[in-house]
Amino acid sequence: MTERAFLPCRIAVLTVSDTRTPEDDRSGDTLVARLEAAGHVLADRAICPDDRVAIGEHLARWCGEDAIDVVISTGGTGLTGRDVTVEAHRDVYEKEIDAFATMFTLVSMKKIGTSAVQSRACAGVAQGTYLFALPGSPSACRDAWDEILVHQLDYRHMPCNFVEIMPRLDEHLRRK
Q1: Distances (CA, A) of 51 to 54, 136, 157
Q2: pTM attached to this predicted model
Q3: 161: Cβ–Cβ under 8 A, 6 or more apart, which residues?
Q4: Phi, psi (5° rounding) for residue 5?
Q5: How many Cβ atoms sit within 10 Å of the Cβ of residue 83?
Q6: pLDDT tens across 61-73, in order?
Q7: CB within 8 A of 70, min separation 6: which ones?
Q8: What is the fold, at CATH topology level, of the domain defined by 10-170?
């Protein structure tokens, strides 16, 4: 079997926070450093307030851009009243990737034990774009990237990965 070539993804990073600025966005910085080290391209980066409508509009806009394959958000996945990122993601999803939440919980349990139950990390697909909602801590971003996303966003990862089915994510939109 011949080895597959690496195919870089174009990834946008959205930090959801009422208080973060570009100067102190450690979680966004963590994701950018990791995706670039893996050979992917930072397609865009932004900070959005904890507002369900604003988050959803940002996600939908990026999903409509041909130059973006993947959107990773960080922040707003907890249980407090301002944590509305998961709801905004689900407003945009065409399909949810249910197992991502399970995998993230398993990874988190190794690090933080039963406190992992407080995360509502999730993932889905919309308009042929993958979307991942991660907690707002740099350590959670590292865990999600290092244990799940670095593998699933690598075309060489076997037996299967997200990249190999990317061309088919929006096939239902092309059918007549």
Answers
A1: 5, 15, 36
A2: 0.95
A3: 151, 152, 153, 154, 155
A4: -85, 150
A5: 17
A6: 999 999 999 999 9
A7: 9, 10, 11, 12, 129, 130, 131, 132, 153
A8: Molybdenum Cofactor Biosythetic Enzyme; Chain A (3.40.980)
